[in-house]
Amino acid sequence: MKFSIITTTFNSDKTLRSTIESVLNQTYSDIEYIIVDGASQDNTLEVIKAMEPHFSGRLHWISEPDKGMYDAMNKGIAMATGDVIGILNSDDFYTSPDVVEKIAIELQNTAIDAVYGDIHYVNDDLSECVRYYSSKTFRRWKMRLGFMPAHPSFYCRREIYERLGAFDNSYKVAADFEHLLRLIFVNRIQIKYIPMDCVTMRTGGASTSGINSHKQILKDHLRAYKKNGVYSNVLLESLRYGHKIIEIISQKVHRKIKSI
Question: Is the pLDDT at 130 greater than 90, yes or no?
């Protein structure tokens, strides 16, 4: 089973090496690694070129202007030749070397279309976990409230992308939600949760960067519901934020108790 892992980049030279190294260090070997760069002006391309020989022909990359992150992801999906597609952002890295191997084991069951797990967020110097995002409690019906599986942990068969489409890049920050809403809620693909911390994410990404971002997420979510004929509203969406606040407070208390 061949995996296509896609990383999109733009001026990512400070973090990209750790992303690439985490792919290179995976114990699962049948990986095609695709990097789609948006014509970076820093040393991103130098990092890619320096790491390319280590992949022995399994790393493919392009660098050209794009219309944003989701447009770049779609380019990577179009380039993919693997049986399974996953997205690894350029400021993130795999939490352990056996992540892809464990995902591959689950997908040996041909009745499963996609799998997902957990992720965690760290501060920029990687010294502290600021939030653990578990997908354990995700259920399809919760998408009406704005919940979704942790997208960086989502691995889906390529034929699903071919049949149901990739990302709608007209969404500013929540094309991943619209995509999962379309696949999981509307078309009811067969999914399975894996109790595993898949990806370590640095804070400050497109969907974690403050109140303006959350306003745009809400706007994108409401638009996604309408596009896909799914009933929801602002009140239902607000329940998600209450849950998130409780989750963050609970995790902070837990960390404080452990440190005592």
Answer: no
